[in-house]
Amino acid sequence: MKIVPRTDEVRFDAATKTLDRSGAENEINEPDKNALEMALQLKQKHGGDVVLLSMGPPFFEPHLRLGIAMGADNVILLSDRAFAGADTYPTSYTLAIAIRKIGNFDLVLCGEESSDASTGQVPPGIAEWLGIPQVTYVSQIEVTENVARAKRTIKGGYEIVEAPLPLLVSVELGCNSPRFPDFKRKRWAEKEFKLTVWTASDLEAEPGKIGSKGSHTIVDELIQLPIPSRRMEQISGSPEEEATQIIQKIKEALST
Amino acid sequence: MVYLEHSGGQLERVSLEILGKAHQLAQKLTTNVTAVILGCNLGKLGEEAIQFGADQVLLANSSGLEKYTTEAFTAALGEIVRERKPEILLLGATHDGRDLAGRLAVRLNTGLTAHAVQVEIEPETNLLLCDVPGFGGSIVARCKCPHSRPQMATIRPGIFQIPQRDPQRQGSIENVAVSLGEVTTKVVERSVKETVDIAKAEIIVIAGRGAESYLDAIRKVSSSVGGVIGVTRPLADKGLVPRDQQVGSTGYAVAPKVALVLGASGAAHFVSGIRDARSVISVNKDPEAPIKSYADYYVVDGIERLLPALLSSLERMQGRER
Fold it and tell me: Which of A33, A250, A251, A255 has the most B C-beta neighbours within 10 Å, making it the best mutation to test the interface with B?
């Protein structure tokens, strides 16, 4: 689970060419909520524990507690300055060695991508580090014995993929309706629940494989795309008059 | 090197778009474009790739590559890349392309940039520069991979031009043997419909949440103006219209001559998708909805009032034309 700034509240400082996230409210990355909902539904059917795993600074904590309030059993936050500046390669490595440390898992569920960098590369990366199969862009899943049947979105439709457990699944944004937290549980999660934090040394991570040191890519420059200038002319009148004008404008646009 | 996807005996559009771009990059680097095609019964796909810009085609033909599975395709492409050692590897940012690239980059211990909207060669270093949109599409990061090889990138579909097909173009085709290793996953069912290519449409009629109850009428409007239907994310989430028709940063960017946007409020992740529309007309009953700032012409009125008027005007006009 990743905590991301609300994308429309991130400001771009044109002078320094950096992002100012300070004014932006943070929230749980949306497809990660769908992944948690899928996990909670599987737990209701089959039992087991749902562990939330996240990597980021300490300010992630209150948001992760919301995941506990929704029904997760435990939270592990990977937090260390040494993890900072990671691209998808060290990020997937760090999450994978944490999953190995947790051990004894059947399914790793991730959101399909994050709303900030939106690469979608971390889930397949984790699966490769763990050496387990993956099914991405999954909207539904059924588990029987040691096999999962996953409905995977592809261009123009879907496919059903059968895969053995343990398995990594990336979950499609909007495929289910994440539950609201239970009020009582929310108070407990906020006030009493003890969250686990692991550092790089807890993970015995290879120093050259984490954070900016472990990254293969660098960001050279950030550019803000200008908002295209539009005429912003209002068309008004009766519905018939408005319709006539709309058709007129469509014709004009097509003839240019 | 470019990895080409195909279906129904033809290369995918995005694969052709990548071939055109790769040809330009190769000219700057005075090198060749090698295309990799994986599958079973590849027919004339090698010839097609050459006609669209490949200099060399590597075909891996195997029954284990008939349907896409992460394991088999990562094994095959990984083996080819390790042998041929390309400087650059480009793939389409499709569902399968992203699934494959994300895994392959870790296996090859290299850097990968996701769904680039522009790629070029940095003159001083000959490195690949990739422009990648983030934060709902409003900010672009220019990324590079200085030390590891290949420099991998997935390319967003619908951005680059498909090159002119040149039936006279010459190139070499080579069949390569690959080992697929153990494949534990199985595709047991597949249901695919013809997709509407909204990225290339001239007219697109986009329905937002305020218009979701009127999709039938909107389809009529769209077909009578010769357009295609697009939707904002909530409508695709509900499954009312396929994901392939979702406009915005988590769907497709469109560049029509005109976009008629009905009942969309103008959320940042949506409006980044209509940035390149030449003209935008919006209809929303809320006079405060931000969509009007992204429109050339806007109407403040209810969809339920406007649609019947729009339909009868269109019918009248078509009647006259007949």
Answer: A250
Tell me whether residues B114 and A127 touch, CB distance under 8 A.
no
ipTM over 0.90: yes
Q: Does A19 touch chain B (CB under 8 A)?
A: yes
pLDDT tens, chain B, 322 aa long: 999 999 999 999 999 999 999 999 999 999 999 999 999 999 999 999 999 999 999 999 999 999 999 999 999 999 999 999 999 999 999 999 999 999 999 999 999 999 998 999 999 999 999 999 877 777 889 999 999 999 999 998 888 989 999 999 999 999 999 999 899 999 999 998 888 889 889 999 999 999 999 999 999 999 999 999 999 988 988 888 988 899 988 788 899 999 999 999 998 889 989 998 999 999 999 999 999 999 999 999 999 999 999 999 999 888 776 6
Look at residue B182 and tell me if it is in a domain.
no
Assigned CATH class of A3-209? alpha beta
Quote the number of domains for chain B: 2
Nearest chain A alpha carbon to B237: A174
Interchain contact, A249 vs B135, CB within 8 Å: no
Chain B residues whose beta carbon lies within 8 Å of the beta carbon of residue A19: 135, 139
B52 and B117 assigned to the same domain: yes
* Separation CA B313–CA B322 (nearest Å): 14
Q: How open is the CA angle B26-B32-B35, to the nearest 5 degrees?
A: 100
Kindly provide the b/e burial profile for residues A187-217, where b requires at least 16 CB atoms within 10 angstroms of the residue's own CB. eebeeeeebeebebeebebeeebbbeebbbb
pTM: 0.90
From the list B129, B134, B186, the residue facing A161 with the nearest CB is B186
Nearest to A38 by CA among A72, A62, A2, A74: A72
Which among A136, A171, A181 is positioned nearest to A35, based on CA atoms? A171
Q: A16 — contact with chain B (CB < 8 Å)?
A: no
Q: Is residue B299 less than 8 Å (CB to CB) from chain A? A: yes
Q: Which domain CATH number covers B134?
A: 3.40.50.620
Query: Is there a contact between A10 and B111 if contact means CB atoms under 8 Å apart?
Result: no
Domain coordinates in residue numbering, chain A = 3-209
First to last CA, chain A: 48
Considering the domain architecture, whether residues B45 and B139 belong to the same structural domain is answered as yes
